Amino acid sequence: MAAGRRGVSGNMAWRGCFLRWTRGDICITTTRGSRFPLITQQRCGFRKAPKKPEVKKAEVEEAALKQSELIEGVNQRKGVEPPIQPSPPRSFGRLFKPLVFTVGFSGCSFGAATIWQYESLKSRVQTYMDEARAEWLEKLRPQKQGDLQKQTDDTAYWHRWWNQLSDFQKQTIVVLFQVNQWWDSLTQGQRTVSGIIAANALVLCCWRIPSLQRTMVKYFTSNPASKAMCFPMVLSTFSHYSFLHMAANMYVLWSFSSSIVSLLGPEQFMAVYLSAGVISTFISYMCKTATGRFGPSLGASGAIMTVLAAVCTKIPDAKLAIVFLPMFTFTAGSALKAIVAVDTVGLVLGWRFFDHAAHLGGTLFGIWYVAYGHELIWKNREPLVKIWHDLRTKGPGGGGAL
């Protein structure tokens, strides 16, 4: 009897029991020391798989067409980008138009800068002559007794006008006066790059408008796999999607603006900056086509690298420092060598975080322009100046002077 009880107890203690739920198709197996997932089985063994209905090819194509139309309609309503098309083959023939555009746009930039400098110089000379003539006539005119009384009346008039203004109008005038003082305190280089910074900020705001996403991706990002290849070479130079990206680039441009404009002048600087943006993008196109690593790029880094390289080449002994580590200083020549080395390694190893090809292309263009480009391009602009001067004075025999 005791042995029977021990046998029953042993059998109850052993947890290897098999339970079946007759209403379902679930078998639960339990074993000592382990757990198994639920196993779904058929109640009555194996069942014969049902025959799959034959689908005609025409029905499949019609269903796929309806599905693609439905997806396209949903994407249009949501304003999202369609799936990325497969990359085109590596054909350098596609780069012929960007090459012509690069040469033509760079030439137009320097031509426009030449005309701008001519008109600016002419305007300054004319203003100086007008002021000198007015001052000479003022000295020749005899002093009248009523002049002092007129100045007193003018002061009283402006005093009454100021007292009639509201507090808001007075504050507005004060703010505008302070802005004008701040603008006058800037260097010529800082005033020159202020327009570039404003354009970049405007494009950054356009990236935040959902209805403009397709246009921004098409025209404000440069990609050799895109249908639009030429205009994005210029527009992407003013395009930033991230505020931090734009802030970093504009800070570097602002820091070197006084040096580069004092070296080149505002007109030549703008020509070099715009040309650098297009040239660095074309170098990026070439590298992406050669490696097959297509993808969109944007940002002013290529043009800013040209500015940085030009200053460092012209003033290699200048002391530079990192904004967050001002205690560590280094020469501009050392910084330029480090930049070239990092971008070269990134290009060879295929780093994708930055467009190292555009960076390297902008850097090399800046070095070349300071060493040779200024002599070859800017100092040979005199024929264009003569042509424009003849047009402005209505023919070679016309009157007028610069």
From TrEMBL:
Domain named Peptidase S54 rhomboid is located at 232-373
Q: Say which enzyme class the record assigns.
A: hydrolase
Q: Where are the transmembrane segments?
A: 99-118, 192-209, 230-248, 268-286, 322-349
Q: Which GO terms describe its molecular function?
A: serine-type endopeptidase activity
EC code(s) of this entry: 3.4.21.105
Reaction catalyzed: Cleaves type-1 transmembrane domains using a catalytic dyad composed of serine and histidine that are contributed by different transmembrane domains
Write the record's keywords in alphabetical order, separated by commas. Answer: Hydrolase, Membrane, Mitochondrion, Mitochondrion inner membrane, Transit peptide, Transmembrane, Transmembrane helix
Look up keyword Transit peptide and say if it applies.
yes
Q: Name one GO biological process term.
A: signal peptide processing
What is the protein's membrane topology class?
Multi-pass membrane protein
The terms describing its cellular component in GO are: mitochondrial inner membrane
Its subcellular locations are: Mitochondrion inner membrane
Record has Transit peptide as a keyword: yes
Family from the record: Belongs to the peptidase S54 family.
Q: What is this protein called?
A: rhomboid protease
Organism expressing this protein natively = Megalops atlanticus
